[in-house]
């Protein structure tokens, strides 16, 4: 199967559902970005393009970045055992998930304030995902109203950070439902804010506090300053946190560095039960690392689990999701188990699937892609990852992702 080189998606994929973009005309990547050959390349391009504090916010994690590093290492700990002389000419990267059939087994993970790094960042991700027929999860910690993103991609998922009290939870969930989202992701690994020392050192805060240093960081990155930040203010006004609550939150740039992150340390499964009763669609619980919690989530009505340590951005030293994936899959055979944190290559995607994941999510690289090249960049990143998945399926001797199992892997050095 010659994997298509257009960013539009998969020859092997079914047509996009009638509710998504019907056709995906190719979007040209600027010539200056022709050297972007892998997801890691986008990181380097974004490092140059973005002011230091903005890049630090996206790329950084917490404390000693131990989980961030462990996420990458966990994939290197497995090696493939390929099969040969299998006719793979009709292989397909298509992947079913929660009643839909996507073009590839990966989607765009939720990322806060994506519209600070890329002009209309959440919309760009949502449109590229619709064009490529992969899922996109919009973060509640975003600067574009959820209603706009739902209009741009009616199949987008919404990821909520729960407000700390029931009336606000109920109002937020009502708004998400009215906006038309059908899949709700509840992130459960943020009982308190994590220790983002790297943000403080790089001069990043939310909201951003105006300062001479921040002004210089902006002025020394004119493509971002004019093409993203000032363009946003000129055309859409000062961005605000739009979706943490049913109502609008703080502006992104403010003297008062107090963001309305409500205290949610007291939340428990009782609150999840309330949401389950209210939400008519699918609920995915994200941020689980212990198989017992995964089972509890399913027993409380979750339709899917995302095994995640939040890209290493919450508890430093938290186990890499890949290491606990098989236990979570064994504990929850009745729902799709998904994974994120550390996936950068098609080979990583296939390792996760061989260990039982039904689907994976990738975050930072799609944010970088949106920052450096907008929708064309995200489409390019989706296409690169899909091509890697397809090429590696061929070299593993696999026609369908459902054929993958642990027999295709062994522990390095074992
Ligand atoms: C938001 O979810 C973040 O990790 O910064």
Automatic annotation (TrEMBL):
<keyword id="KW-0285">Flavoprotein</keyword>
<keyword id="KW-0288">FMN</keyword>
<feature type="binding site">
    <location>
        <position position="286"/>
    </location>
    <ligand>
        <name>FMN</name>
    </ligand>
</feature>
<feature type="binding site">
    <location>
        <position position="139"/>
    </location>
    <ligand>
        <name>FMN</name>
    </ligand>
</feature>
<feature type="binding site">
    <location>
        <begin position="363"/>
        <end position="364"/>
    </location>
    <ligand>
        <name>FMN</name>
    </ligand>
</feature>
<feature type="binding site">
    <location>
        <position position="159"/>
    </location>
    <ligand>
        <name>FMN</name>
    </ligand>
</feature>
<dbReference type="GO" id="GO:0016614">
    <property type="term" value="F:oxidoreductase activity, acting on CH-OH group of donors"/>
</dbReference>
<feature type="domain" description="FMN hydroxy acid dehydrogenase">
    <location>
        <begin position="31"/>
        <end position="414"/>
    </location>
</feature>
<dbReference type="InterPro" id="IPR008259">
    <property type="entry name" value="FMN_hydac_DH_AS"/>
</dbReference>
<protein>
    <submittedName>
        <fullName>Alpha-hydroxy-acid oxidizing protein</fullName>
    </submittedName>
</protein>
<dbReference type="InterPro" id="IPR012133">
    <property type="entry name" value="Alpha-hydoxy_acid_DH_FMN"/>
</dbReference>
<feature type="active site" description="Proton acceptor">
    <location>
        <position position="310"/>
    </location>
</feature>
<feature type="binding site">
    <location>
        <position position="161"/>
    </location>
    <ligand>
        <name>glyoxylate</name>
    </ligand>
</feature>
<feature type="binding site">
    <location>
        <begin position="110"/>
        <end position="112"/>
    </location>
    <ligand>
        <name>FMN</name>
    </ligand>
</feature>
<feature type="binding site">
    <location>
        <begin position="340"/>
        <end position="344"/>
    </location>
    <ligand>
        <name>FMN</name>
    </ligand>
</feature>
<feature type="binding site">
    <location>
        <position position="308"/>
    </location>
    <ligand>
        <name>FMN</name>
    </ligand>
</feature>
<feature type="binding site">
    <location>
        <position position="187"/>
    </location>
    <ligand>
        <name>FMN</name>
    </ligand>
</feature>
<dbReference type="InterPro" id="IPR037396">
    <property type="entry name" value="FMN_HAD"/>
</dbReference>
<feature type="binding site">
    <location>
        <position position="57"/>
    </location>
    <ligand>
        <name>glyoxylate</name>
    </ligand>
</feature>
<feature type="binding site">
    <location>
        <position position="196"/>
    </location>
    <ligand>
        <name>glyoxylate</name>
    </ligand>
</feature>
<comment type="similarity">
    <text>Belongs to the FMN-dependent alpha-hydroxy acid dehydrogenase family.</text>
</comment>
<feature type="binding site">
    <location>
        <position position="310"/>
    </location>
    <ligand>
        <name>glyoxylate</name>
    </ligand>
</feature>
<feature type="binding site">
    <location>
        <position position="313"/>
    </location>
    <ligand>
        <name>glyoxylate</name>
    </ligand>
</feature>
<dbReference type="InterPro" id="IPR000262">
    <property type="entry name" value="FMN-dep_DH"/>
</dbReference>
<dbReference type="InterPro" id="IPR013785">
    <property type="entry name" value="Aldolase_TIM"/>
</dbReference>
<dbReference type="Pfam" id="PF01070">
    <property type="entry name" value="FMN_dh"/>
</dbReference>
<keyword id="KW-0560">Oxidoreductase</keyword>
<dbReference type="GO" id="GO:0010181">
    <property type="term" value="F:FMN binding"/>
</dbReference>
